[in-house]
Amino acid sequence: MQAKTPNAIDAYVGERVRLRRKLLGLSQVSLSESLGITFQQLQKYEKGVNRIGASRLQRIAEVLGVPVGFFFDEEKAHTAGLRLSADTDEVAHFIASKEGLALTRAFIAIEDPNIRRKLIALARSLGSTQSVTDEHESWERADVTRG
Fold first, then answer.
1. What tens digit of pLDDT does each residue of 73-96 get?
2. Domain 1-97 listed as CATH 1.10.260.40
3. Residues 104-138: b if buried by 16+ CB within 10 A, e if exposed
4. Does the keyword Transmembrane helix apply (predicted)?
5. How high does pLDDT run on average in the chain?
6. Are 34 and 65 in contact (CB under 8 A)?
7. Which has more pLDDT, 69 or 3?
């Protein structure tokens, strides 16, 4: 007997629930208590194993402070599989990490829009510098191996 594969839409909605919960710093236990369900049930929702009913999704949206539409990527809603793009998937996983959460919270705490823009510019330049450094190091390794 094979295990049932989660539906792509259910998995996507569950991932969005997990992302928002983590951004708010809520544990599965605290969110599940707010919803009146077990944390195991919440785990199943977040993994897409169990489908979230409309009324339950409405309650989750209220508790997490987002509109129900937050759980659906409007651009992707028209595609059959409703899969995350590679970029979106990478961003979602980063934001859900400890570093991503810390960086997001710190960035949100910056009230001055000019400082936010400068920080974004700095991050982009560091990212570009890292890419150039990585390329340079790979060229150096290639030169060393060629002799």
1. 654 444 434 344 445 567 767 777
2. yes
3. eeeeeeeeeeeeeeeeeeeeeeeeeeeeeeeeeee
4. no
5. 79
6. no
7. 69
Q: What is the DSSP letter of 71?
A: G
Alpha helices in the chain (DSSP H): 8-23, 28-35, 39-47, 54-64, 86-96, 98-109, 113-146
Contact 73, 88 (CB under 8 A): yes
- Tokens found for residue 64: 């997490």
> What pLDDT score was predicted for residue 145?
47
How far, in Å, CA of 87 to CA of 66, rounded? 23
Q: Please answer whether residues 46 and 14 qualify as being in contact, where contact means their C-beta atoms are separated by less than 8 angstroms.
A: yes
The pTM is what? 0.57
Nearest CA-CA partner of 85 in 73, 99, 95:
73
